[in-house]
Amino acid sequence: MKKILALILALAPIAASAQSADDVLQRAVDSYSKLSSIRAEFRQTLTNPLTGNKTTTSGVLLRKKPNLLNISFDNGDRIVADGTSLWLYVPSSVPGQVIKTPIRGSSSAAFDPAGEVLVSPRTRYSATDAGSAKVADRSAHVVVLTPKAANVPFTRARLWVDDADGAVRQFEVTDANGLERFITITKLTSNPRIARKEFSFTPPSGVKIVDQLSFSR
Asked: pTM, whole model, 2 decimals?
């Protein structure tokens, strides 16, 4: 009996490390699908390979299905989907204006990279295993996603999937322009109660509203 128990214990880490990329990705998909709402504190680093510029900022993401989103950065930038319109306010780079776009379906997912890659990912990406890693003190497996077609917002995505709960604790995406976005989730709350007012946006006084609806007519 002791020999059998020892054998099981010896094989356990081997089984964990042998998880396929599809298995890891499916755990992440299952974990994300159970979230009706989320609150995530994060740290983001943007790297522009063309200019060599690298900027790091922090913020808080609030998400409530199906189409409510509030991303508030510590530099004053905000992205808000209020259920009807998507507001893009980035005074750090484009001061004095806010872009307002009508929400069509799940258009706010374009600003929620985790949702973009965790909703039916196999139809758009091929997954490969990139080994195991640690995010803070949590064990994770890394999966690299490569697009199957050109009609996706990322040319490459890398996910660190928590071994314990399947949550994405860290991810890195590269867009068509080569811009690299590396995000670490520093604190995650699953299915919190979030007041509806958290998803409202009032443009600051004097800010020009660029209404995309007028350009689409």
From this structure: 0.81
